[in-house]
Design brief:
It is a single chain. This protein is of the alpha/beta class. The protein is 11% helix and 15% strand. The chain contains three helices and six strands. The protein has helices at residues 93-97, 134-139, 175-184; strands at residues 2-4, 88-90, 105-110, 116-123, 131-133, 157-162. Strand 3 and strand 4 (116-123) form a beta hairpin. The radius of gyration is 16 Å and the shape is globular. The two termini are 15 Å apart.
Amino acid sequence: MDVDVDGAPNAYGPSGKQTLDILLNAHYFNRAEKEIVGYLTDEHGKPILQGPEDPFPGYYISQTAFADIRNQNEKDPRRYVDARKINYVVRGDLARRRGARVGDFVSVHSRRTGKSAFAIVGDTGNPTGDEGSLHLLQDLGYPFHDGKNDSVEKPEIVIRFYPNSNPTHKFFFTQTELNEAATKLGLSRDFSAASGTNY
């Protein structure tokens, strides 16, 4: 699982800015010739900058597939899921075919650290789905700080999807809110029953 920082207001920015990721990673498949999917651009393909009232003035506006439907301003960085504060996973093609929707709840478990966490399907754009937000990887006990080089290289992350578990597209600004909502739905972070099995 690679670290995804999309949605964080300091994810990307002009040269010289202290960012959480490099600009190449904002392109589809991390290839320079592919389209930019990590931040907003204008009709000429130039990055749109945050204004003086935004969290990181002068930085790019990094978006996620899941957004606050109550906020219709696409240029507001607060409209998107902040990878620094919220646990999310990227939905891959397999999960999509099996009914997972953007905004659905998931449970995530690390077989290495033994920790589990609630998260949501917060983004798309990687057919493999092998990405999770910076906050998620930190919550699972990994000492990661950004999306530049950090990655879980072994197949030790397990994701349990709950299709159609967030039909109203409830948006979360804190992980505490997300955890409370998942708990109220009766969702589980317990992976002990699957111990010793091949996930």
